[in-house]
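User: Hey, quick favor. My workstation is busy. Could you predict this chain's structure for me?
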Amino acid sequence: MRLLLLACLRARTGNATTAARIQNHLHAAGHVCVLKDAFMYESPAEIANLTSTEKFDAALAIHLYKGGRLLQGSRIPFGIIFGGTDVNEDTKCKEKLQVMGAVLEEARFAVAFTVEMKELAAAEWPDARKKIYVQSQGIKTTPSETFDWYRFLQNADIPTDTDSLHLFLLVCGLRKVKDPLYLVEVFSDWHREDPSVHLGIIGPAVDPVFTSEVKEKVKRAPGVHVLQELPQEELHAAVSRCCALVNSSISEGMSAAILEAMDLDTPVLARDIPGNAAIIKHKETGLLFSSPQEFVVLSKSLINDPIMEREIITKAKDYVKKHHSWEGERKTYQDLVLRLQ
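Assistant: No problem, here it is.
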């Protein structure tokens, strides 16, 4: 089949990573899968035009609103993959809710990353329950073997005395829903008390206005750094070398960065929100915090308790192997896409 996959393809964001992985799964089954950036199109009419001129047999979209609305009234069969903000946030807007309901009605199937996400969607659109499948994100990490950790630290103006350094990495696209400023003040206070701790914020400038705000605030916060974006293999290598991966999002579907850190033997400290709590069991596979102050308390306990750190790393790695198999995800999408024939 010749398949169109619509997603927000901003480089190095979760959606772009997921889209590339699904494309790879479908190519492996012998289909042609073409990725298109949902932001490049305004209306379903433009997509209808695209599907007929490029002779697509079927389509997939990531995000029920951003990608899905463009497939409304589509001439070709399609499936939907929930993003996270669609079910968590966009349902609060009456107009978006209506559009998403109509899209879901037309879709042959939908994929939710977690049981919780499926339940949220089914509560909103009960008639769609039977067509929603749960498939968690499949994870495969590829850390670069030539990554220069010391140069990375030097470029960020972080002391390279790595024996005493504790670098926490907050990996996210710079936009409000990821709340990268949530921990800046308390972290800076902690750094004044213990100069060995540093927080690096790394990710694409998704919202340019907000990115400037982040950079301004960080300038006045010793111990906190906005780092240069890295290609995925180098980012994986950096995550594997850091003290912990941090997630401070207000809302998450399923954070690939968290799962990748677990796979790379790096402990995770994440904000206690439904999307994070669905994949992290507190003090077993990671640490969940509900306030900036609690984040600092838990971070100190992680640094000072190597036995707890080792147990968390081991259990997290086992969890990813068991529940986020890349091969399992491949089989699901290869099977589901046959429903679009």
